[in-house]
Structures are given as C-alpha cells and as structure tokens.
From TrEMBL:
Gene Ontology MF: a single term: alkanesulfonate monooxygenase activity
Originating species: Mycolicibacterium aurum (Mycobacterium aurum)
Keyword Flavoprotein applies: yes
This protein's record includes keyword Disulfide bond: no
Domain of life: Bacteria
Taxonomic classification: Bacteria, Bacillati, Actinomycetota, Actinomycetes, Mycobacteriales
Keywords: Flavoprotein, FMN, Monooxygenase, Oxidoreductase
InterPro entries: Lucif-like_OxRdtase_Rv2161c, Luciferase-like_dom, Luciferase-like_sf, SsuD_RutA_monooxygenase
Protein name: Putative F420-dependent oxidoreductase, Rv2161c family
This protein's encoding gene: rutA_8
Residue stretches making up the Luciferase-like domain: 10-229
Broad enzyme group: oxidoreductase
SUPFAM superfamilies: Bacterial luciferase-like
C-alpha cells in the first residue's frame, strides 16, 4: 500500500517544505485538492458532510493544484503528485490539456490527474459553463484531454466540444494516469470505464470495501479485470498498524493521510510541527515493515 500526504487547506507558503519533507521521509505521493473560490451563499449542499455544510470558510487557503504540482515538483525528484480531485466541469478541456501536459513534462512524468465533476452550481455558472448536463460534458472533456495528451495531430467532434486538427507539443513521454473521483453509481461506472484508478472522499473502511468490490465488478464488465488499477482512499475509522492492515485487506492501494491532523494539530499548524508529524508517521507506518508480513 502506498502512502500519500494530502495538503488540503494548509498555508500556501508551506507547500514546498512539505514536498521536500515528504520525499525525505518516504511518502509516495502528494495529494493536491482543488477549490476555485468560496461563495458566500451556496446553492447546493456539499455532498461529503452530513449536514451539507462546507469544512472551510472564506479565509481558508487554496492554491491551483497544477501550479502547486509544478512548484513542488521543482524541489523533488522521486515524489509523485496528483490532483485530488480537480473539478473539470467549470473548466475548458483544451486549456487543461495544455496545463496537464506541461506539469507532466516538468515533473518528468511524476503527475497523475485526479478528476471529478464539481458539486457547486456557482463554480459552473460564474465561470461561464452551464450546470446542466455536467456529467456528459465531463465525460467528453476526459476524452478530449486524453486525446490531446497522447500527442500528434488530432481533431474532435462531439456534442459539447468541436475542433479541427491541432497538436500540443511536447506530449508527455508516458501516458498521464487518470484517477476518477465520486461515490455515485454513475461516477463508479465512469471510473471503471476511463480511469486508471478511483479516488474516494471521506469513507469508512466498510464503505471502501463495498465500493472497491463494485468497482472490480465494473472493471470486469468493461474487460479490464486484469488491468493495473489504483484505489486511493481517505478512511475515517481505521487507525494504527492494525487499521492499515484492514485497509490493505479491503483493497486500498493508496492511503491518503494528513499526519498533523492525526497528531491533533490544525491545518494551519507551524511547518516544523508538520514536519515532525510526517517523520513520526513515516517511522510508524512507512518504514515499520508491517506490509512485509
């Protein structure tokens, strides 16, 4: 099982130091969250809290995850980065293809593209994109981005996007993996159809095991039962070495964690405290050898 450190809702000026420390102590990846803006009034419930409220406010810091990946990639050499997840629905696929390809090249293929639709109508409408038909539009966006990133002269004629022959160079030298987020049936079908992996929001171990089982069945339906596939998880009820063993047994291949939160620190804790938490976490889980038995 891999270990990924999430940098959600932390100060922007800590990101480079967190990347350096994560690589130093042995984390596999950094997970980069996405939020465009904070709207004072929300038209829809946030789907991952019991009461639909957001877990952040107008002063919570966010940075564009693709820019963050470039900055953090510049000070590391082995650490990988992935968006967790980037909300595609309010964006343009050709512009995203240019950005994703740039990050992949600048990091020497140490980037994975975690994608979702987006939950807030305001993010769509205020960016000039309709909220209606967002799922079908995102399906087409993924197709466009993959097509362009594969390299060479390409064209596309779909229901939402239409362009004649074009090429973006340089294309990444290896395919950028796509990790699809979402918990609904339609999201899981999308993940099984076009994803190289699936990424969760906050779930219990039992929920993760059930969802991974559904995904494996869907992969088989799509003729992909033997394909390499990542199951990236944010688990809210399994801790300690025994808990991590249970996650691995449930099928989790990548455990997304925030070590300083586990130590009772806030998202805005001082960077030295966060570094200490990362080192303790790595000693307890990454280097303890529990996966060897």
């Amino acid at each position: 099982m891999q270990y990924t450190c999430s940098v959600a809702m932390g100060p922007v000026d800590q990101l480079v130091d967190i990347a350096k420390t994560a690589e130093e102590v042995g984390f596999d990846n950094i997970a980069l969250p996405d939020s465009l803006f904070y709207m004072e009034k929300q038209a829809a419930d946030y789907p991952y809290t019991p009461d639909g409220s957001r877990m952040w406010d107008e002063d919570t810091p966010w940075v564009d995850p693709l820019i963050a990946a470039g900055a953090m990639g510049a000070v590391t050499s082995t650490l990988r980065f992935y968006t967790n997840v980037m909300k595609l629905g309010s964006r343009n696929p050709l512009l995203l293809a240019r950005q994703v390809g740039s990050v992949a090249n600048l990091t020497n293929n140490r980037f994975g593209f975690g994608v979702g639709i987006g939950w807030a109508p305001e993010e769509f409408e205020w960016c000039g994109v309709p909220y209606a038909k967002r799922g079908k539009r995102v399906d087409e966006m993924i197709e466009v981005i993959k097509l362009v990133l594969a390299g060479g002269m390409v064209e596309f004629h779909g229901d939402f996007y239409d362009f004649e022959r074009l090429q973006m160079s340089p294309a990444p030298s290896v395919p950028v993996p796509f990790y699809v987020g979402g918990h609904t049936d339609v999201a899981l079908r999308r993940a099984a159809r076009v994803g190289d992996g699936w990424t969760s929001a906050m779930m219990t171990c039992d929920q993760l095991a059930e969802t991974i089982g559904k995904l494996k069945a869907l992969l088989a339906e799509n003729g992909r039962a033997d394909d390499p596939y990542e199951y990236q998880a944010v688990c809210i009820d399994k801790f300690g070495v025994d808990g991590h063993r249970e996650l691995a047994a449930a099928g989790v291949t990548d455990n997304i964690v925030i070590p300083w939160v586990f130590d009772g620190l806030g998202f805005d804790a001082p960077i030295e405290q966060k570094k200490d938490s990362m080192k303790r976490f790595a000693d307890t889980y990454i280097h303890s050898g529990w996966q060897d038995g």
